[in-house]
Amino acid sequence: MIPRDNFITENRGASLGVVTEQSSSEERFQNLTLRPILKLQNDLFVEVFKNYISKHKSDFYSFSIEKKLQFIENSIQKDIKFRNSLKGMVIGLFTLEEYANYISNSSNLNKRMMNMLIERLKSQIQLFEHS
């Protein structure tokens, strides 16, 4: 059986974004860890958000585009349970070394993670049309 860390890094894809010697540790973590995980989990995040809409905002589909975008942002920033659930979907794909790195700076990395997820969902707003 393949060790967990090897399995995770082999199956989530290569880094996304530029990493240089001048990159900060947060930027390195973002591009080497967070971006590949967010990309891998994209379809799941979309379905989770669709479920969130159905449970919390039945009139979402009648909103203007601007209001839908604001709803995405507010949902992730203000609904602590939902945000923690989304964070868990990302953290669960960290290697042990990445997790150790994450806990040393979790506050800033959480902000980066949630901001990238918000932008990812907003950029796919067309997927949140009433089906």
Describe the structure.
69% of the residues lie in helices and 0% in strands. With 131 residues, it is mainly alpha-helical. Helix 2 packs across helix 7 and helix 4 crosses helix 5.
Give the SSE map:
Elements: H1 4-12, H2 25-40, H3 42-56, H4 65-78, H5 80-91, H6 96-103, H7 106-122
Helix pairs in contact: 2-7, 4-5, 4-7
Which regions contain 5 or more consecutive residues with pLDDT less than 50? none
How would you characterize the largest beta sheet? none
DSSP E strands, number: 0
Determine the mean pLDDT: 90
**Residue share in β-strands:** under 5%
Instruction: Summarize the amount of helix as a percent range.
Output: 55-70%
N to C succession of SSEs: HHHHHHH
Number of helices, where a helix is a run of at least 4 consecutive DSSP H or I residues:
7
Structural category is mainly alpha
How much is the radius of gyration in Å?
16 Å
Termini gap = 41 Å
Q: Estimate the global geometry from the Cα principal axes.
A: elongated
List keywords for this structure.
single chain, 131 residues, mainly alpha, 7 helices, 69% helix, 0% strand
Outline of the structure:
This protein is an all-alpha fold.
